[in-house]
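Technical note accompanying the year-one report. For the benefit of new consortium partners, we illustrate the data format agreed upon in the data management plan: each record pairs a sequence with a structure-token string. No post-processing was applied to the example shown here.
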Amino acid sequence: MTQRKRATIREVAKATGLSPAAVSYALRGIQTSEETQERVRKAAEELGYEAHPIARALASGRSGMVGLLCGSLEDLWQQSLAVGIGRALFARDRYAIILDAANDPERELMLARQLRDQRVDGLIVQPVDPSAELWAELGESLPLVSIGDSLRGGHAYGEVVFDNRAGVTLALEHLYALGHRHIAVLTSTGSRTPDRPADVYVTAEAERLGVRVDVVTTPQALGAATDVALDVLGDSPRPTALFCFSDSIGYGVYAATRELGLAVPEDVSVAGFDNHPMSALLTPPLTSVDWDIEGIVHSAVRVMIGAIEGKPRRRRIVCEPSLLQRESTGRARAVDPTVN
């Protein structure tokens, strides 16, 4: 079976009655009317014409590649975010280069520089360290869109930020209403990036409510999160509730409770912070703060495409949380300080 020869731009031009230059402009969406662009795209599809990616990049000055720098792909929610953004970009004829900062600020900045040097058309980042000085420099050299937190310097083209204060308030007020006065907060934020908004709000909200909060740094990986949760739950007196800054950390807490023979929520309540789909399947289902991941994907990609194509978009989008109350949180019970 012989393979059909790839159609040329001249054949598309002949089919549409346009010059090859006009066809090239129409396929790139410039200097031609929308009607002409649609007519050329239809003819190109019928003829089986595909622009060579290298030639297209040279002609347009664009690579078709968008960098996606994730804070930590050990976090299952960030994995879901990366899948969604990758697919949404593909639907817009662009491709994601997905990299993992492994929750390391220095690695994050090194990878960001590499993506810039590879001349991606833009960079979407869920930052480990939003206060790093490099973001201002990068924002001047390529379209930069942040997810979660605002970046230092104000040079990002756009941002899809979380109302972290509202999310923290929802979770802590929920636990407070159930009678919890000693809460451990498990966060992946390390000592090198202590000023992330969500972590700062925990202290402020705890003071407002008058509850004791122990903030504990916890890796995202299941095994490591389990080890930290074992230490926290082995303290005396034990906190009556654990609020986890990702559901992935919450899964480690579940594993620790089973190892210690503790019941959720009878012995300890557990709450998460991103509502990963698996959280509803746990026994018991995990109470979690939901951020509408589909909306985040849509907003981030729309802002990035607008930046690449030079089209005006609303550049700051604030995501409002909702609390999904499930069976993992219940009324606090008194803890005997002599029993671990």
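Partners are asked to follow this layout when depositing records. The radius of gyration is 25 Å.
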